[in-house]
Amino acid sequence: MGRTTAVQSVVDTLRAEITASHRPGDLLANERALAERFGVGRNTAREALVTLQVHGLIKITRRGPMVTEPDFDAVFSIFSHYFASDLRTCRDLLDMRTMLETGVLPAALANAGPDDVVALSAILDRMDAALTVRENAVADHAFHARIVQMAGNTVIARLYAVMRDPIIFYMEIGKNVPRHDAASMGNHRRMVEAIGRQDLAGLTEAAAAHYAYSRAVLEETLSREAAARTPTQNGSGGQQT
């Protein structure tokens, strides 16, 4: 059995046992005992425990490996790095945002109160006053994160928070197109107005318009990028890159 396979085998077994029969605060066997149990070296047992810790399932203490509360942030942080700087993956990221953020709208609206309308309006004022594309994108993320938080789903809220950097990266793409920023602001304000009057149909319509326009701008940006990489004909009939 290869080293990587041995580590993964120990990780898979311990993960299943933690899920089935352990509670936060329970202590697991130490690395020496695990090495004896699984018939592997202590380094393999140690790597398995480190992997479980990275995934937020345990923490290494002086008393031994201790089961912790599930740490979704740790898992989502690893997941989010895949998207951090890949422009073309933004299509999938936009799909995720559209499905996630549209899906939470009914719950968000049901939980919305006057304070939420005030907070969302204040965020839009920050977007208006932003001096840089980055500042505008950070405020834009805060706007959508607030709506996600209003829905009351802790896992979705954490996912959205941990995906902050790749989402802001995507948002900055659109905000480099001046006309997009103006149209985007209009859709944002219509969303706030719909929340204020408890209008789910109006909120859903404004959100759909927002995501559709974002998709159009993203596709325009990707097309422009592709054209910049495509060889063009020069005056003598040869190709110029």
Automatic annotation (TrEMBL):
<keyword id="KW-0804">Transcription</keyword>
<dbReference type="InterPro" id="IPR000524">
    <property type="entry name" value="Tscrpt_reg_HTH_GntR"/>
</dbReference>
<dbReference type="InterPro" id="IPR011711">
    <property type="entry name" value="GntR_C"/>
</dbReference>
<keyword id="KW-0238">DNA-binding</keyword>
<keyword id="KW-0805">Transcription regulation</keyword>
<dbReference type="InterPro" id="IPR036390">
    <property type="entry name" value="WH_DNA-bd_sf"/>
</dbReference>
<dbReference type="Pfam" id="PF07729">
    <property type="entry name" value="FCD"/>
</dbReference>
<dbReference type="InterPro" id="IPR008920">
    <property type="entry name" value="TF_FadR/GntR_C"/>
</dbReference>
<feature type="domain" description="HTH gntR-type">
    <location>
        <begin position="4"/>
        <end position="70"/>
    </location>
</feature>
<dbReference type="InterPro" id="IPR036388">
    <property type="entry name" value="WH-like_DNA-bd_sf"/>
</dbReference>
<dbReference type="Pfam" id="PF00392">
    <property type="entry name" value="GntR"/>
</dbReference>
<protein>
    <submittedName>
        <fullName>Transcriptional regulator, GntR family</fullName>
    </submittedName>
</protein>
